[in-house]
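Review form for a predicted model. The reviewer records the input and the model, then writes brief findings.
Reviewer: anonymous (R2)
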Amino acid sequence: MSAVSPMAAMPLDIDRVRGDFPALHQQVHGNPLAYLDNAATTQKPRRVIEAISHYYEHDNANVHRGVHALSIRATAAFESARERVRAHLNASSEREIVFVRGATEAINLVAQSYGRACIGADDEILITEMEHHSNIVPWQMLCEQTGAQLRVVPINDAGELVPGAFEDLLGERTRLVAISHCSNALGTINPVREMITRAHAAGAKVLLDGAQAAAHLAVDVQALDCDFYALSGHKLYGPTGIGVLWARGELLDAMPPWQGGGEMIRQVSFEKSVYAPPPARFEAGTPNIAGAIGLAAALDYLDALGLANIAAHEQGLLAYATDRAAATPGMRIIGTAAHKASILSFELEGIHPHDLGTIFDSEGVAIRAGHHCAMPVMKHFCVPATARASFGLYNTRDDVDALFRAVDRARDLFA
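Model under review:
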């Protein structure tokens, strides 16, 4: 199950880490908060909050436009954030980093710019059964617009891709493979490096949805050798409303803009507009300046702790919670892949997940209950929804114990 080698990691000073997150230090319905909804969004460390506040208190101005001191400082901070993301992903150039609202917008950008320019009738787009709706619906829309065909790699009852199915579906008409690096509903970490190699051998480009993976795994886009990588800041302990599309420079150079307006142009007349080079070509309008600055602060925070250390800590919590679940009567884990991130999706016999979510909340335990924007996954496992506990770098065994006290409470109420 482990995604990292414990020998490569150092224990986190969890008390110090928890002290960095103001939101954790509160009571909910008279109980200490156990926040276990990190796959939906993470809490923010004080460093991120202070970076955003500093921008609004001292440097609030638009970027790339003004010659006054505030605009110059804001522009420097914004572009410094772009370089910070480049370094974190080991991209070859800042020009390959496009700021967007989140992974959803990044995938839509690729679909409506690269997809509409390069994918035509009877071409094929290959996704998997475990995808988030954000990596399904944009491709369905593109297929409706172009006449392309959407093909789906099935999963097995462990929540892993069916062996051999990807290779069987990959063909001469496959133009794009769009897959989750890590499933938000199951925690499954896909063997993306091998899949990328096979896709490229077939002549297809590859987009990785890294919204879940980026908080748990070190991401090196050059080592992965993918063509597009999408991520969201709010799942990386950064602010909401900011995300990143990384794409190979030569692909961005050839892609048309998908939104028009200020900043994305070089010259405009009523007869014709000449577009700016990437990344400005894809950043029409005033960007989320504070969000980019906050994201850079979040990446600084994660790198200071060490992603290997974070992953080892989370894997320890997942193993502890999985053992507790296996010993709990009537509890079924949904998603038992050999390689998982720290996500525990489950159902409890006789109790709807929405009822579980309400009962858990009354005990101060925050989880997610629903289909997790992954309805095909729910259909595969023949459930309407699951309860999902997802662990982050600040969670402890005490949080897991609180989760299972809430499980016992729910079982007592429904007995």
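Findings: Residues 83 and 94 are 6 Å apart (CA to CA).
Further findings: The two ends are 33 Å apart (CA to CA).
Recommendation: see findings above.
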